[in-house]
Every structure is written in C-alpha cells, then in structure tokens.
Design a protein that fits this description.
Length: 452
C-alpha cells in the first residue's frame, strides 16, 4: 500500500512538472494529502527563523502563499477548463504543482539573496535579475503549452502571463500594502518616510562636510600617552540603536578616557543635516583619518557597531529608503588595515554578529560580539531602552569599573539569565583576544581608566 502511494505521488509530481493533461493525474485523499504535506514542509524549511524559540504562524507564509495559491488555483482551473477535466483531477493537478512552484520560488530567492549579499554592486540591478528569472519561467511554461495544446496555446500563454503579473502584484501588495491580508486599525496621522522628504543629492553632497566637522573637533594624539579613540556607529534608523550609541558615547566622554576623541556615524533620519551617515565610505574615511593622527604603537581605536544583523554576515545599514550597502566584517577589517590601525577593539551588538569575531581575528585585536554567527541577539525593538548586550556590556560592565574581559563575562551571564527567563534560544556572545593585545591589555584598560 505504501509503495503504491509513493508511486502515485511520484507520478503526480512528474506529471505536474511536465504540464501533462489532467488524465495523467491520480486522484484520492491519500496522494493529495502526501503532496500537500510536502508543500508545507518546503514552506516550513524555507521560512523557519532559525535561532529563535518564539513560534510565529507567519513562519509558514500564510499571507503570501494564501494570495499566491489563490492565483495559481485560478490558473490551474483555467488551463484545465481547456481540457474539460473533471474536478477531482483538478485538485490533484493543483496539489501536485505546488511543491514545484514553492521549491522553485524559494530556491531562486535564496540564490538571488546569496548574489546580493556577496556582491553589493548588484543592488541596483537586482530587480532586473529577478524580472529576468520570471521571464525565463514564463517562457518555459508557454513553450510547454504550445507543445501540449498546439493552435490553442495562445489562450494558455495569456493565462501564463496573467499568472506572472498577478503573482508580482500579490507579492507587492504583501510587502507594501499589508492591510490586503492583515487588518490594521486606521492611523491617526499619515506617516511619511523622512528619507522621502529630503533631497538625496543634497544629503550625499553634505556628507564630506559633516564628517570633516567631527574630524576637525578631535583632540590630538599625545606623545608618550596611550590614547583611546572611539568610533560609534548606529547603522539602523530604529531608535534603540541611537540610544545604544548615545549611552556609549556619553560613557566614553565622561568616564572612559576618550573625551574629545569620539566620532559618531548615525542613521537617525531626523538628524540627516547634523550627523554623517553610517556608510561604508564614511567609516573608511573616519578610520583613515584616525590612522593618520594616532601613534600606531601607543594608541587604540575602539569601534562600536550596533544594528540588525544578517545570517549571511554583516549588519544592515538602513536610513529610510536610502540605497545603502551593509557593513560586513571584511569591509571593516579592510578599512582598519588600510588605515594602519593596529591596536583595535571592536564590539558589535547585532544578530549573527559572531561573523565579525570569526573573520576579524588579529594578534592586536580584541573582538566582542553580542551573539554567535548562527544566533540572534535580543532587545532590538524600540520598546527596549538599549539592546540587551549593549546594556549588559557597557552599563552593567564597563560603567561599573569592570575590565574588558570581565565586562564580557558579565554580559554573557546577564543576557543568558534573561534568555533563560524568557525561554529564548541562547545568543552565545563571542570573545577573541589576540596574543599581542592580551599582553597589552593592562595598558589599554589604563587608557580606559578601568585600572589605576
């Protein structure tokens, strides 16, 4: 019985990918149930948010595939109408086609995502690449219709084009007009993206001047003194990341020996006229300037980066709708090396930030991340005063006079306790200390005024 069921399910899958006539499909509850379950398994595997213990029904793409499935159903019904197929076989055709559709869409999306993450220059033509993929799929389906239906194929071709357009519209509606699927109460005021109100050319034109103003205010390096310089970067427009940077810069200014030696790059859309953006170019230029003014044998540069992270590596740089590229460990490492900055401390508060610890190791580096490379971190919602790790490492660690390694241990313990209390998957913060940095750690902590 099981073998027979397997053969029938396999037959339906093969018939679906071949766009076979309805007469080729087996009917029955069991075979349809098996293929339906296969579709849900594909959706679950492709959309599961690995690294979190919080269940969300949206994992299964109910909204997206509810709309897309509706359009696909209409398509199958219309094609089958051309064949005068019976209703039972229509159901089998639809269910057998779904695993192929879902698997193909997720595979193409995943591959395009890899390309986009690996080569940031594709950002501008990424939509064209996706459109090309859609056209190729439509061409294949149309050619199959011509082969199957001959002179009547033009009707199927029109239906196929309609399917493609409808799917694009459905996905666009889901992304930009979520009320199509989910009820949202009417807003009391109209929200306008701050980035849409600014002159993009003017903002970009002013970046060199805004950054130079901060650079000109930096206190000079003191010969014979181990100075500390801080570059604090909030690379996402959410307010919680601004609060992270505000607290850290204030702490370094007042208590940690970096007064007058602090640079800030900010994604706050309300401060586009006052603060330089957290772009790769600004990060590189800021570090290059620091590299020229410090004594590479005496001074240390502390980089603090807070944002949302990506599982593929790097942190998001988001300022409204401005088209900015993400910051990856490779880009930050290259900027530090190009600037000639040897003694470096890098602390990253973001999901999947363990990528920075894994990829930036250097004998003169101390690296800290809020999570492992395959784990999320917590407290990145606007209802949090600060991200959990920033609060634990800086406020409950360095601000209390603990050393760098002690602050890391404190942060690891405190975040672990909160995660356990809320039944969350452990974030597993990471620490790396290079051999040369470990030997010089007391001198660095003296510069931070953590030891007398």
């Amino acid at each position: 019985m099981t073998g027979n069921l397997y053969q029938r399910a396999r037959n339906n899958l093969v018939a679906a990918v071949q766009l076979a006539p309805a007469s080729r499909f087996h009917t029955g509850f069991a075979v349809n149930a098996v293929l339906g379950l296969l579709s849900w398994v594909i959706i679950a595997i492709a959309t599961f948010p690995y690294g979190t213990a919080v269940f969300e029904i949206s994992w299964f793409g109910v909204a997206t595939w509810g709309g897309a499935g509706f359009v696909i159903t209409l398509y199958i019904l219309a094609i089958a109408r051309l064949q005068d197929a019976e209703p039972a076989r229509l159901t089998s055709m639809l269910i057998a086609l779904l695993p192929w559709v879902l698997g193909s869409v997720f595979l193409v999306s995943w591959l395009l995502g890899l390309v986009r993450d690996q080569y940031d220059t594709v950002t501008a033509w990424y939509p064209l690449l996706a459109l090309l993929g859609l056209v190729m799929v439509l061409a294949l389906v149309i050619s199959g219709l011509v082969r199957l239906y001959g002179g009547a194929a033009w009707r199927g071709a029109l239906l196929t084009v309609g399917l493609g357009v409808a799917l694009v519209v459905v996905d666009w509606q889901r992304m930009f007009v979520p009320s199509m699927f989910v009820y949202t109460p009417p807003a009391t005021s109209v929200f306008i993206d701050p980035a849409a109100r600014v002159d993009l050319e003017q903002v970009l034109f002013e970046q060199p001047q805004l950054l130079q103003q901060q650079l000109d205010r930096l206190a000079p390096q003191r010969p014979g003194v181990s100075d500390l310089y801080l570059l604090a970067v909030s690379s996402h427009e959410q307010a919680v990341f601004d609060r992270d940077v505000e607290y850290v810069t204030d702490l370094f200014e007042r208590e940690l020996g970096a007064a007058g030696r602090i640079l800030v790059l900010d994604a706050d859309t309300a401060a586009l006229d006052d603060k330089p953006l957290p772009t790769r170019h600004n990060v590189r230029r800021a570090l290059a300037y620091l590299g020229e003014m410090i004594d590479p044998n005496e001074d240390t540069v502390f980089v603090f980066l807070t944002s949302h992270g990506a599982a593929s590596g790097g942190v998001e740089v988001r300022v409204g709708s401005l088209p900015l590229r993400s910051m990856t460990a490779a880009h930050l490492q290259d900027a530090l090396d190009a600037a000639g900055i040897g003694w470096r401390i890098v602390v990253v508060s973001a999901c999947y930030s363990g990528h920075f610890v894994a990829q930036m190791q250097d004998p003169r580096a101390l690296l800290v991340s809020a999570s492992a490379a395959d784990r999320v971190s917590y407290g990145c919602g606007d209802d949090s005063p600060m991200t959990w790790f920033t609060e634990a490492f800086f406020q409950r660690g360095l601000a209390q006079g603990l050393g760098l390694t002690e602050s890391y241990e404190q942060a690891t313990r405190l975040t672990s306790e909160r995660e356990t209390a809320e039944a969350l998957t452990p974030s597993q913060p990471q620490l790396f200390i290079g051999e040369a940095m470990e030997a010089r750690l007391d001198e660095v902590e003296l510069a931070l005024k953590l030891v007398d």
